[in-house]
Design goal:
Blueprint (H helix, E strand, L loop, with lengths): L2 E6 L2 E9 L4 E3 L12 H6 L4 E2 L3 E3 L2 E7 L13 E5 H9 L8 H4 L7 H10 E5 L15 E5 H13 L2
Antiparallel strand pairs: 1-2, 2-3, 3-4, 5-6, 6-7, 8-9
């Protein structure tokens, strides 16, 4: 079973690991408090355990602890929601290494600002939309697609055209 450390929201999330089926695992220590918590203990102090995701419609949402992450000081909540399908693509098939054909030659010439806008306009698409198949959440069923095309695809399946 291939596991990669989670890369999401353009950052590495230490102590969280994802497999190609969209299942999240963690080595983050549990039962730590402000007196015995260090970054090393928090990230890698626990045994590898499978995390339980929450079904959010047809998608799976995981709640991740923000402590010592790039989002540590944001807001009052201690956790952040992560969609498994987007996490899979950002971890295993980042956009920069899986560009659409018409962007491959242009990417290196674009400014960081333009690249940022393009990234935010891209969405993760499920090639086969049949949620009852065991491969629905699998990396092999996912691809990057522009929002407009994803919306059009959703309308076609909704209206049956």
């Amino acid at each position: 079973m291939e596991l990669k450390e989670l890369f999401y929201d353009e950052h590495l999330w230490p102590g969280y690991y994802l497999n190609v089926e969209g299942v999240l695992f963690s080595t983050r220590g549990v039962g730590l408090n402000k007196h015995n918590m260090t970054e090393e203990k928090l990230f890698y102090g626990g045994h590898m355990r499978k995390l339980k995701g929450t079904s959010c419609g047809k998608y799976i949402l995981y709640r991740l602890g923000k402590k010592y992450s790039h989002r540590d000081n944001e807001g009052r909540y201690k956790s952040v929601g992560v969609c498994s399908h987007k996490a899979l693509m950002e971890t295993f098939k980042p956009l920069e290494k899986n560009l659409p054909e018409d962007l491959v030659d242009e990417w290196s010439h674009l400014s960081d600002v333009v690249k940022s806008y393009i990234k935010r306009g891209m969405q993760v698409d499920h090639k086969d939309t049949n949620t009852s198949k065991p491969t629905f959440h699998h990396l092999s069923n996912l691809r990057w697609i522009i929002g407009e095309d994803n919306s059009r695809k959703g309308q076609r399946s909704y209206y049956g055209t």
